[in-house]
Design goal:
This protein is mostly beta strands. The protein has helices at residues 12-19, 21-29; strands at 44-49, 54-62, 68-78, 86-98, 103-108. Strands 4-3-2-1-5 form a five-stranded antiparallel β-sheet, with no helix packed on it. The termini are far apart.
Length: 124
């Protein structure tokens, strides 16, 4: 029939990938991170993990799936009765490689402070 071609804009990389199926397969498998962790390289960051563990350390490396390499890492120990409450005690770890799948929060170490819980109801 009478089909109309719609204009399509593609990037130079995609147009090259379309011309070579092997390149297209590699372009599809290429992972791109949504986080800009490069600006935190060689700076102290705080990382929270699934399960409640928290560490600070100097970010030395990362990849697109947020696997992290931290140097001079320190773990903040948790209360055995309540794993989400920190005790104020720490443990020196040193060099730490963290799997990205376990990371829940990343922030600058100096960008955090503890505040009172605004949702806590007295006497509940």
């Amino acid at each position: 029939g009478d089909e109309k071609a719609w204009p399509v804009t593609v990037s130079k990389e995609l147009s090259q990938a379309i011309s070579d199926p092997d390149d297209l397969r590699m372009a599809r498998n290429k992972k791109e991170s949504v986080l800009d962790l490069g600006r935190f390289l060689d700076q102290t960051i705080r990382v929270k993990f699934t399960g409640g563990r928290e560490v600070t350390g100097v970010l030395k490396g990362f990849d697109p799936v947020v696997n992290l390499v931290l140097d001079s890492a320190v773990e903040y120990l948790r209360d055995p009765e309540d794993p989400y409450r920190l005790t104020g005690e720490t443990r020196e770890i040193g060099l730490l490689v963290a799997r990205g799948i376990a990371v829940t929060t990343i922030c600058p170490a100096d960008g955090m402070k503890e505040i009172e819980n605004p949702f806590l109801v007295e006497g509940a």
